[in-house]
Structure formats: C-alpha cells, structure tokens
UniProtKB/TrEMBL annotation:
This is ABC transporter ATP-binding protein. It holds the Pfam family ABC_tran. InterPro entries: AAA+_ATPase, ABC_transporter-like_ATP-bd, ABC_transporter-like_CS, ABC_transpr_LolD-like, MacB-like_ATP-bd, P-loop_NTPase. Keywords: ATP-binding, Nucleotide-binding, Transport. SUPFAM superfamilies: P-loop containing nucleoside triphosphate hydrolases. CDD domains: ABC_MJ0796_LolCDE_FtsE. GO terms for molecular function: ATP binding. It comes from Propioniciclava soli. The lineage of its organism: Bacteria, Bacillati, Actinomycetota, Actinomycetes, Propionibacteriales. Residues 4-228 form the ABC transporter domain. The keyword Zinc does not apply.
C-alpha cells in the first residue's frame, strides 16, 4: 500500500475573474520507505502540491489517499488531526518556539494529540536522542546552531512516529556544513525505513533522494535518480 496516492489532482485558484490551474491532473504514488524529491521552477505548482500532500490545503478535484485515509474531502478539523499525527513537517525556517527549550518544542505535536505529560516528555527526549541531541534537550533555539535547530525540528517531526516526513527546503537556511549534517540525518532516517518527501530547488539536494519528481506547469514528470546514494 502506498503511503500517499494522488490521482488526477487539480487545484484551481480564482484570481479575480481569471482561473489559475496550479495543478492539472497530478498522479503521484509514494510507497512506504521511499525517499522522493520534488523539484520545479518558480510558479510550477510545487508549493500547491506540497500544501496538498501536507493536508494544509485540499484539491479542487481528484483523489488523495494518505496512509489509508481518504483525505480529499475531509473536514478542516479532521485534516488538522491527520496533519499533526501522520505527517512530520520540516520547514526552511525551523519554526521552533524561541522561548521554549528543545524538548518542549519536540513534545508539541504530542500535546496537540493529547498525550499525557510524562509520556510526552519521555518521547520528546527519545526523539532528541535519535537525532543526536540528547545533551541539548534543555537548550533554547538561540543557544543552538542552525544545523542543531533543524535537528530539533526533525526530532519534533519524528515524535509522533508519522507515516510521512515532509521536508520543505530543509537546508535552505543552512551553511554547507549544516546542510550536509541535515542531509546525512535524512539519509539515516531513510535507511531506517522512514518515508520522506523533500521539496527543494537545489539539484544536489534532490539527488540525495531515490527519485526526483519534476513539476512543470502544474503537471509532473517522474524520473529515477541515476546517482542515488
Ligand atoms: P511554486 O511553488 O512552484 O512557485 P505555486 O504552487 O506557488 O508554485 O503556484 C502555482 C501557480 O498558482 C502560479 O501561477 C501561482 O501564481 C498560482 N497561485 C498560487 N497560489 C495562488 C493563490 N492563492 N491565488 C491565486 N493564484 C495562486
Ligand atoms: P514555507 O515557508 O515553506 O511556505 P511555512 O513555514 O510558511 O512554510 O509553513 C507553511 C504552513 O504550514 C503555514 O500555514 C503554517 O502555519 C503551517 N504549519 C507550520 N507548522 C505546522 C505544523 N507543525 N503542523 C501543521 N501545520 C504547520
């Protein structure tokens, strides 16, 4: 069973009297344990596709099954729960709460999922240990390097044991050393069986994935990666 399956997905925006077809019949399957990169020029529909994959927005038409759930016509409340519990988000800007210690940031999705506090704390600490930051649990974001902050964000993404890790330009804000650090961690997570979808405009970053999906003018072309690591 695929972790995600998009079938003939369309997204149409009304821009005044004009309709913009941001996605025009996208088909995409991502199977459990796959590592897929999505690339495409500005305006091609990448953000629209990522928002639909991440259940941040819904398609205008077509099918979307995520982790066995038909999410295409789900209510906003149900989508919010699916988003929190089945998808681990990693963003370019880390999106950490600056006043909160690392472990408090990591426990947040469990808090939304109404997990009890002792279990939240334990799972947050375990997740930080998994990304190599056991000794940084009580640091605040501004006491950590950019690469470490992104590791905290990845620990937060993992804490619910999600079906999918969705990483939107996760290295866009990092220097080359931290970029390698974060890409190495994604490689490890993939090797451990995680399903990862990475959105990037950088070819070298995309080539770390097993498969590159290119978006052009609201349609996709799927290419195997020759030099997969
Ligand atoms: P990308 O992320 O590849 O730059 P987007 O998904 O942001 O592409 O945009 C795809 C197309 O949809 C573009 O033509 C863009 O102008 C249009 N678009 C995106 N969001 C909206 C919106 N909220 N309203 C109207 N048009 C939009
Ligand atoms: P980008 O800069 O790549 O567009 P943003 O950081 O603006 O990404 O986030 C995109 C959207 O995701 C925003 O609407 C934000 O509120 C939402 N978002 C951020 N973190 C989470 C989360 N953990 N769960 C669900 N939605 C989130």
């Amino acid at each position: 069973i695929p972790v995600l399956q998009l079938r003939n997905v369309w997204k149409t925006y009304a821009s005044g009297a004009v309709q913009v077809h941001a996605l025009r019949g996208v088909d995409l399957d991502v199977h459990a344990g796959e590592y897929v990169a999505i690339m495409g020029p500005s305006g091609s529909g990448k953000s629209t596709l990522m928002n639909i994959i991440g259940c941040l927005d819904v398609a205008s038409a077509g099918q979307y099954v995520l982790d066995g759930e038909d999410v295409a016509r789900m209510s906003d409340n149900d989508l919010a729960d699916i988003r929190n519990e089945r998808i681990g988000f990693v963003f370019q800007q880390f999106n950490l709460l600056p006043s909160q210690q690392a472990w408090r940031n990591v426990e947040l999705p469990l808090w939304y999922a109404r997990v009890r506090s002792a279990e939240r704390r334990q799972r947050a600490l375990d997740s930080l240990a998994r990304v190599g930051l056991a000794d940084r649990a009580h640091h605040r974001p501004n006491q950590l390097s950019g690469g470490q902050q992104q590791r905290v964000a990845i620990a937060r993404a993992l804490v619910t044991d999600p079906a999918l890790i969705l990483a939107d330009e996760p290295t866009g804000n990092l220097d080359s050393v931290s970029t390698e650090d974060v890409l190495g961690l994604l490689d490890e997570l993939h090797a451990a069986g995680r399903t990862i979808v990475l959105i990037t405009h950088e070819q070298e970053v995309a080539e770390r994935a097993q498969r590159i999906v290119r978006v052009f003018d609201g349609r996709i072309a799927d290419l195997a990666v020759g030099a997969a690591s």
